[in-house]
Amino acid sequence: MTVRVSLMQVDCSDSEHPDDRVARVIDDTAEACANADMVVLPELWHAGAFAIDVARQHQQPMDGPLVSGMRTVAADTNTWVYVGSFAETLAGNTYNTAVLVGPDGDIRAAYRKVHLFGFSGGETTLMTAGEDLVVVDTPLGPTGLATCYDLRFPEMFRQLVDRGAHSFLVPSGWPTRRIEHWRILARARAIENQAWMLACNQVGSHAGVVLGGHSMIVDPWGAVVAEGDDSECVVSAGIDPDYVTETRRIFPVLADRKL
Questions:
Q1: Is 180 known to be catalytic?
Q2: Strands 224-227 and 167-171, how do they pair?
Q3: Which fold has domain 3-256?
Q4: Which of 16, 107, 190, 241 has the most other CB atoms within 10 Å of its CB?
Q5: Which one from 12, 33, 123, 148 is the annotated catalytic residue?
Q6: pLDDT digits (tens, 9 = 90+) for 9-40
Q7: Residue 236 contacts residue 244 (beta carbons within 8 Å)
Q8: What is the pTM of this model?
């Protein structure tokens, strides 16, 4: 079985008002859903991953217009939509929350980012860290959810595999100046866990930071199946979820773990 996946590499430049971007990207996602079984968006794309003051001004609850709009898109197009993440208000706290919506429009999972980026007045000045790891059934098989900076913590991904993950969805806001880290880490997490990696980055410039793009679909051997450049685009590929089981069978490295 082939699953058609598309990564929405959104331009999050601060020249566009967040409300206008949300409306535009919801429309763009609906178009992408016409040719995909699953669509994935980046981290904090409504505000820009480094625009923490903007995120503070445009935080919203789970039933706010961003998630509600994407739920409508998913239901209208019968498509899985990983909304990427947004600044979620919940019980007096703000979280960097990524939401997975099923083709019926129901919320199937929410992941609140565990490893917050704390450099240069980053997320830790606004966000509360999540505590729970999430693995959810999708057309890709059991799927582990992570966000951006989480990529630097391999133990998290191994725990997701221990909970059954065969694939990872990683919405991100990774800057150009560290883009080689991004490309290496996304492949490394796929290789060491023998899992599909769908890593969706953003582009554009905001808060004085240039975002690097290069959204990637990586197979369980670490081969890059599809990759974006540094401009707004949709990165698409057809992938076989069963390839994970086959890879782990013919090269059973996970069975040799000692620690």
A1: no
A2: unpaired
A3: Nitrilase/N-carbamoyl-D-aminoacid amidohydrolase (3.60.110)
A4: 190
A5: 148
A6: 999 999 999 999 999 999 999 999 999 999 99
A7: no
A8: 0.97
